Each structure stands twice: as structure tokens, then as C-alpha cells.
Amino acid sequence: MTDASAYDVAVVGAGPAGLAAALSLAQQGLRVAAIGAPPPRRDTRTAALFGGSVTLLENLGLAAVCRTAGEPVYGIRIVDDMGALLRAPEVTFTASEAGLDRLGFNIPNAALVDAMRMQAMAVPTLSLIDVAVTQVVPAADGVALHLASGSVLSARLVVGADGRQSICRQAAGISARTWGYEQSAVACTFSHQRPHGGISTEFHRPAGPFTVVPSPDNASSLVWVERPSTAEALAALPEPDFRAALEERLQGLLGSVGDIGPRAVFPLSGLSAEVAGRNRIALVGEAVHVIPPIGAQGLNLGLRDAACLADCVADARAAGGDIGAPDVLDAYGRMRRTDIASRIWGVDILNRTLLSEAPPVQALRGLGLHLLKSIGPVRRLAIREGLAPSFLAPRLMQPGVQKADA
Ligand SMILES: Cc1cc2nc3c(=O)[nH]c(=O)nc-3n(C[C@H](O)[C@H](O)[C@H](O)COP(=O)(O)OP(=O)(O)OC[C@H]3O[C@@H](n4cnc5c(N)ncnc54)[C@H](O)[C@@H]3O)c2cc1C
């Protein structure tokens, strides 16, 4: 008789990265528990998900959410709005230039999580357990999880997808470096008069980027980075005043602004865990890396965590090994190290070049944009590497692994 409280894998945290990991691992026939309450409030964020992330969703049977809730993104335009005498040139990265149909889809986080939960309910080997985990106790042969309901579960491998304050990370004995930025982002969705044409626009401004990303129904999602006090003040403005401020910032790009959805403020911060796994616990998503919302990298990284972990677990099973063994977690850590470090570093440098008033730094940033504008191969390389690192191709991010649709 099997022990009903014993799982192959328990995923702690049912956000988008955790649910992606749970679906990816359950697809191998493993008995998986995804533990954590659904988000308590509606998330105002959307995530622009690029090539490999979209393929992962398709392979997990989630292609429909891209079409029904998402909007295709065909290009990314960077506009220098630093207010300097000499403006750097405007640069547009297009999917067609890279030989792609589209760069990806912009999908509301709430719709993505809802679709993932629906899909999880349809997978017989995957259980959704809607409670918090209060304690994580690793041992030599498995991990015990104490739930807020009073139950105790065990698993051979735990996936810590429990966000930046991860108790799984602490239980694994993994330290993390954290840092703050004197910036916060105002996020919301708004409708507008002119079509966005599937192009995302990032204005580079002295307080940080101001980005509008295509959303369905002639709307865009906004990530407006400012000094924290300014961001709070903007989010608290009466709607007509916020609309006026938004229209001024947009400089006519999208015409007049219509309906504005709920606004939320996200303080910018960074986190980098020392390793991605130890003591039968593998970390994914914001439990292992937090980066500012610049260049749409955070959840794309989290989905690559899920797909890479699935590869490492599949390889261990194929070799008849223990899925929570140290060599599996080491392999996962090696697979993730360069991708995570390079994205954290790249986003941090870009953000700091905007904040720096030093003329040489500004000149260097302008030179970078000039090079991207004028040299096609450099621009095409930037598009490809911006979408996903070329050295990494986890199986679930390759087309056609499974075409089941939700
Ligand atoms: C304004 C903004 C815009 C962004 N835009 C993009 C974008 O365009 N593209 C992109 O790729 N990324 C983007 N990101 C980043 C992206 O939103 C995050 O990377 C992603 O939401 C993180 O998902 P996660 O599952 O790792 O963490 P979370 O969503 O934080 O999920 C963690 C889950 O764990 C649960 N949990 C915590 N502790 C416990 C416990 N003890 N027991 C059980 N459950 C627990 C929490 O309740 C939560 O549900 C953006 C971020 C911001 C702030």
C-alpha cells in the first residue's frame, strides 16, 4: 500500500514558477504535490514571456492561455529619454529581423496562474494543496513538510518556489545576497486610442525605465520606474491626474489614454542565492533570483529553472538514481548558474547606467545604443540572447515535446 502523504516531489509555493515546475515534473509520471494558497489578491503584473517560455507553456498543455489572455509581442523599441543635449538613437529589435514570427506573448500573471491551476487539476499524478507550509525539515532520505493544517507530508525532492522570503532556502542552508534599489515600479494596465502594433516601448529615463508592453484589446501594461516616493505619489493620484501624467510621459506614442486598471507599487530589489539546490531542496523562481522588472527577464528565468530541473530529474530517473540526490542538485545548480548570474548582472548594469549622472557612463550607454542601431549582426545577437541564452536548451523548451492543449 502506498503512503498517501508520501510524494516523489513536493513543490512549496504555487506561483507561476512553482506551478510550472509542478506541471513539468508531473509530466514524467512522478507523484507531485503543489502546496500553497493561490495569490490572495489580483496581481496587476503581466509578464512578457519569450520564445522558450512560450514553448514550455505549449509543451505543458497551456498554449491556449497565450492566445486567449495574452498579446503577441513583435518588437521592442528603446527610446532614450534621459533629457541630455545629445539623444542616443532609437533602437527597435524586431522578431522578423531575427527570423521569428514573434518575440513572445505578454500574459497577465493572474490569468497565467489560473490556467496553470486548471491544468494541474487535470493531471492525475498532481495534487494541489491550498495551504501554507510552516516548516521544512530535510533528512538523508527525504524532506518532511509541516503544513498550516497540521498535516505532515514527505517527499524525496522538494522544490522551493516560495518566493523571495523562501523558508525552503533557509531549510536547505542556502544563503542569499540581497540588495535594494532606490526605485519602485508602478504597474497597471490601461487602454489607449492608438494601436500599439505589437511593439513594446521602453523609455530610458534618469529615474529608471518607463515601459509599455502590448496587451489585448488596444491596451498596454505599464511598468513605470521612479524614485520610491514619486512612485507612491503617482499610484495614489486621482485617476484623471494619473491619466494626464501618463499621457505626458508617453509623449503621444499611444494617443489619449482611456480606462486605467488598478495600480500597484513594487519596490525594486535584487536577490541571488549562493546555489540553486542543496539538501534535497531545489530552488526555482524568486526563491533563487530576484531582479528588477527591466527587460522582462524575471519569470522567463523562473520558467527556465523549472524546465532545467525537469531535465535533471529525468536524467536521474533514466539512470535509476535518487531524484533528490546531491549530484542531481549539483547538476541543476551548474545548469542554472551562468544564465542566472548573467541576467542579474546585465539588468543591474543597465539599471545603474540609467541612474548614474557621470558623463562617461552616459556616453558609454549612448555608444552601446549607437552600435545596436547601426550594426545588424550585433542587434540580431542581442535579440537572440535577450530572449534566451543560446547555450541552454532544456527539453521542455524545445518544440513538440508534448502538444496537449488546455
Ligand atoms: C512590475 C513587474 C513586472 C514584471 N514583468 C515581467 C515580465 O514582463 N517578464 C518576466 O519574465 N518577469 C516579469 N516580472 C517578474 C515576475 O513577475 C516574477 O519573476 C514572478 O512573478 C515570480 O514568480 P514566482 O513564482 O517565482 O514567485 P511568486 O509569484 O512570489 O510566488 C511565490 C508563491 O509562494 C507562496 N509561498 C510563500 N511562502 C510559502 C509557504 N511557506 N508555503 C506555501 N506557499 C508559500 C506565495 O504565496 C506565492 O504564491 C515582473 C515583475 C514586476 C514586479
UniProtKB/TrEMBL annotation:
Coiled coil: none annotated. Keywords: FAD, Flavoprotein, Monooxygenase, Oxidoreductase. The keyword Transport does not apply. Residues 7-337 form the FAD-binding domain. Its cofactor is FAD. Pathway: Cofactor biosynthesis; ubiquinone biosynthesis. Gene3D superfamilies: FAD/NAD(P)-binding domain. GO terms for molecular function: FAD binding; monooxygenase activity; oxidoreductase activity, acting on paired donors, with incorporation or reduction of molecular oxygen. GO terms for biological process: ubiquinone biosynthetic process. The keyword Cytoplasm does not apply. Belongs to the UbiH/COQ6 family. NCBIfam families: PRK07494.1 (NF005691), Ubi-OHases (TIGR01988). This is UbiH/UbiF family hydroxylase.
